[in-house]
């Protein structure tokens, strides 16, 4: 990005920042002058902590695929821009897992490392994980063990020297890279992770198998763009919506594929699709996920409540004269979508900035 483009992006963000926070006009003008000069001299600029914090929250508010945006203003923002070594990065990541887990009362949080260097496009800190907590996947002679979605990344970790136990629920190591040196990996200490045993309240739906899932989803491979600056390592978490686990991670045929087992434990006739055995199994599986998290005292939201919260978000935004953008196909939940208001209306999928974006995998 050249200096002029960067200034245009910076000015657009500073304008929104000062307008929404209703700061004094002179403060806005002085800040613009300072940033303009900084870009002119250094080819880049530094956000103040407040600009960084508000930008991360706006990026969440602008995330078209997110149903959880009602709480966009309530997020802890950790400034990790001074971290430069692998050890410092690992420490921030483990601290993030600990603080966000908060004993089960999950706190939305983001940890923001140094931005990409505008001139060279180099990124000083890279996180190779898709999520800080995720289970390994292995291809074995007896078939796939663990999470099929992790098979490729698990091989990368094994090439780096990591060895998993080979169970269906092996937490992958953290893999980070600084200044394009070779990546380093580190196991996550057991005591900072909460995992939830998944059981149905009344039926043995997994036929005695130990099934669990981790408490906190922490996305660590997206790029946070604020005012022209790209924070390529900015892991963020919320809490889970039950269907993510019960209707996708456990139900997809190319994930844990538990529906046939659950249906058979429910005594359903799986010979004909028309018996709706998949639908009955899905409901019991999702009920089991929600009741298990609740029993464990770990935050989770059901898809009906989440849709109601999103409706309040839409009304709140309208009251502030702001348009809500969204991606319909992602906002509707994968279970009983038409029972939510979202299904019955269109959404404008325009991309506003600041926002979170996909970026190329650092390990391919
Ligand atoms: C607080 C509770 C939250 C809930 C219940 C929630 C729920 C969800 C769900 C269900 C999805 C769809 C995920 C999928 O289908 O794979 C999603 C997507 C997304 N959420 Fe949220 N969210 C929450 C907080 C956050 C926070 C704190 C951020 C960032 C600061 C965020 C940013 C996003 C983004 C960027 C996506 C799209 C991801 C992609 O395109 O792969 N969400 N959210
Ligand atoms: N509840 C959450 N779920 C979530 C949010 C964003 C992205 C993801 C992972 N999405 C990718 C998966 C894999 C393909 C389709 N879904 C999960 C949150 C994760 C981080 C903050 S909220």
From TrEMBL:
Protein name: Nitric oxide synthase oxygenase
Catalytic reactions of this protein: 3 reduced [flavodoxin] + 2 L-arginine + 4 O2 = 3 oxidized [flavodoxin] + 2 L-citrulline + 2 nitric oxide + 4 H2O + 5 H(+)
InterPro entries named in the record: Nitric_oxide_synthase_Oase-su, NOS, NOS_dom_1, NOS_dom_2, NOS_dom_3, NOS_N, NOS_N_sf
PANTHER family: NITRIC OXIDE SYNTHASE, NITRIC OXIDE SYNTHASE OXYGENASE
Cofactor: heme
GO molecular function term, any single one: metal ion binding
PROSITE patterns: NOS
Catalytic activity, EC: 1.14.14.47
Positions of the Nitric oxide synthase (NOS) domain: 65-72
Keyword Phosphoprotein assigned: no
Keyword annotations: Heme, Iron, Metal-binding, Oxidoreductase
CDD domains xref list: NOS_oxygenase_prok (cd00794)
């Amino acid at each position: 990005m050249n200096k002029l483009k960067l200034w245009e992006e910076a000015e657009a963000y500073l304008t929104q920042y000062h307008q929404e926070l209703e700061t004094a006009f002179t403060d806005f003008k002085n800040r613009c002058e300072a940033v303009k000069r900084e870009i002119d001299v250094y080819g880049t600029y530094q956000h103040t902590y407040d600009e960084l914090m508000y930008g991360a929250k706006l990026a969440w508010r602008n995330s078209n695929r997110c149903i959880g945006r009602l709480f966009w203003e309530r997020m802890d923002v950790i400034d990790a821009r001074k971290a430069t070594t692998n050890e410092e990065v690992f420490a921030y990541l483990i601290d993030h897992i600990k603080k966000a887990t908060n004993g089960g009362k999950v706190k939305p949080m983001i940890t923001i490392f140094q931005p990409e260097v505008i001139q060279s496009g180099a990124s000083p800190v890279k996180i190779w994980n898709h999520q800080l907590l995720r289970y390994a996947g292995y291809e074995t002679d007896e078939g796939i063990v663990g999470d099929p979605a992790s098979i490729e990344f698990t091989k990368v970790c094994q090439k780096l020297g990591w060895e998993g136990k080979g169970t269906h629920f092996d937490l992958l190591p953290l893999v980070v890279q600084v200044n394009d040196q070779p990546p380093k990996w580190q196991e996550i200490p057991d005591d900072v992770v909460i995992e939830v045993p998944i059981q149905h309240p009344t039926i043995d739906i997994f036929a005695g198998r130990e099934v669990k899932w981790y408490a906190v989803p922490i996305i660590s491979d997206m790029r946070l763009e604020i005012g022209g600056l790209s924070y390529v390592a900015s892991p963020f978490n919320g809490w889970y919506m039950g269907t993510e686990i019960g209707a996708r991670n456990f139900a997809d045929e190319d994930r844990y594929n538990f529906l046939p087992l659950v249906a058979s434990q429910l005594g359903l006739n799986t010979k004909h699709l028309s018996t709706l055995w998949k639908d009955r199994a899905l409901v019991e599986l999702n009920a089991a996920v929600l009741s298990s998290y609740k029993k464990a005292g770990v935050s989770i939201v059901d898809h009906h409540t989440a849709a109601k919260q999103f409706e309040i978000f839409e009304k709140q935004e309208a009251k502030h004269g702001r348009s809500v953008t969204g991606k319909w196909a992602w906002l509707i939940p994968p279970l009983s979508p038409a029972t939510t208001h979202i299904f019955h209306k269109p959404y404008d999928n325009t991309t506003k900035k600041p926002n979170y974006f996909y970026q190329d995998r650092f390990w391919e």
